[in-house]
């Protein structure tokens, strides 16, 4: 792996553990994985179901210069690294849903949660949390949304150690490209992996629901929507497909 990594047996959340380690003086980059999470965190305060020894729960601590625009598109670039990892294990039909969900047939196979410690306009710590559904075939808890796993998509079980190593390699590669070339250099690749290009969507952003057609993303990673024939960019929110 490109950084020191540790695998824990059971922890509340690998993201929370990384935060504690940063407070205790560990210097990024470093990664923490776990066999199980008892309080796995998802986006928007949701719970991330994390059964023992079935999936990958991985958090990477990074030190980022927000002032040098290194946060721009970062969460989307992490999505590209996870996408490359899944494809390299033979998962086909996998793609991205802005900003950083990974789906197969509209079912979630992996999720990404970035948490920031410090000032985003300065040097800060970013915790990149990645959950990949690897060998989960049945869920003993309600996941609350359609989901799938690598084992449900490709024959055989996944070697989770190999998965973590491969993920580390792709993260390293993409982070170097992002740091050296900036997000604009990766934008076309991201759009090529986006499953919802041209889709009619609703975007929930704060208290607003915006209806539009996905045009793509801009050079900062914001979503470009055509709303009533006018192009607008949104830097956050939750997308859903509009059926009518
Ligand atoms: C999402 O809601 O899509 C994001 C899910 C992120 C889950 C991962 S699992 C490893 C890391 N630790 C956490 O508590 N959450 C992230």
TrEMBL record:
This is Bifunctional ligase/repressor BirA. Keywords: ATP-binding, Biotin, DNA-binding, Ligase, Nucleotide-binding, Repressor, Transcription, Transcription regulation. Biotin binds at residues 13-15, 37, 41-43, 108. It catalyses: biotin + L-lysyl-[protein] + ATP = N(6)-biotinyl-L-lysyl-[protein] + AMP + diphosphate + H(+). Belongs to the biotin--protein ligase family. Acts both as a biotin--[acetyl-CoA-carboxylase] ligase and a biotin-operon repressor. In the presence of ATP, BirA activates biotin to form the BirA-biotinyl-5'-adenylate (BirA-bio-5'-AMP or holoBirA) complex. HoloBirA can either transfer the biotinyl moiety to the biotin carboxyl carrier protein (BCCP) subunit of acetyl-CoA carboxylase, or bind to the biotin operator site and inhibit transcription of the operon. Its EC number is 6.3.4.15. Residues 1-179 form the BPL/LPL catalytic domain. GO terms for molecular function: biotin--[biotin carboxyl-carrier protein] ligase activity. The lineage of its organism: Bacteria, Pseudomonadati, Pseudomonadota, Gammaproteobacteria, Pseudomonadales.
């Amino acid at each position: 792996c490109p950084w020191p990594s540790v695998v824990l047996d059971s922890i509340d959340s690998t993201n929370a553990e990384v935060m504690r380690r940063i407070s205790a003086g560990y210097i990024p980059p470093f990664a923490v994985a776990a066999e199980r999470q008892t309080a796995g965190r998802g986006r928007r305060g949701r719970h991330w179901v994390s059964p023992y020894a079935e999936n990958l729960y991985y958090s990477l601590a990074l030190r980022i210069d927000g002032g040098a625009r290194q946060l721009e598109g970062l969460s989307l670039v992490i999505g590209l690294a996870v996408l490359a990892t899944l494809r390299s294990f033979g998962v086909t039909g996998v793609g991205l849903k802005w900003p950083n969900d990974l789906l197969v047939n509209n079912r979630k196979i992996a999720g990404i949660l970035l948490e920031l410690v410090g000032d985003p306009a300065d040097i800060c710590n970013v915790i990149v949390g990645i959950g990949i559904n690897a060998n989960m075939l049945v869920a003993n808890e309600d996941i609350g949304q359609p989901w799938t796993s690598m084992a449900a998509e490709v024959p055989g079980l996944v070697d989770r150690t190999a998965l973590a190593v491969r993920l580390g390699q792709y993260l390293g590669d993409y982070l170097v490209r992002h740091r050296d070339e900036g997000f604009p250099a990766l934008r076309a690749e991201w759009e090529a992996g986006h499953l919802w290009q041209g889709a009619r969507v609703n975007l929930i952003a704060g208290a607003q629901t915006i209806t539009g057609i996905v045009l793509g993303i801009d050079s900062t990673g914001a979503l470009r929507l055509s709303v009533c024939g006018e192009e607008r960019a949104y830097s956050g929110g939750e997308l859903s497909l509009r059926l009518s």
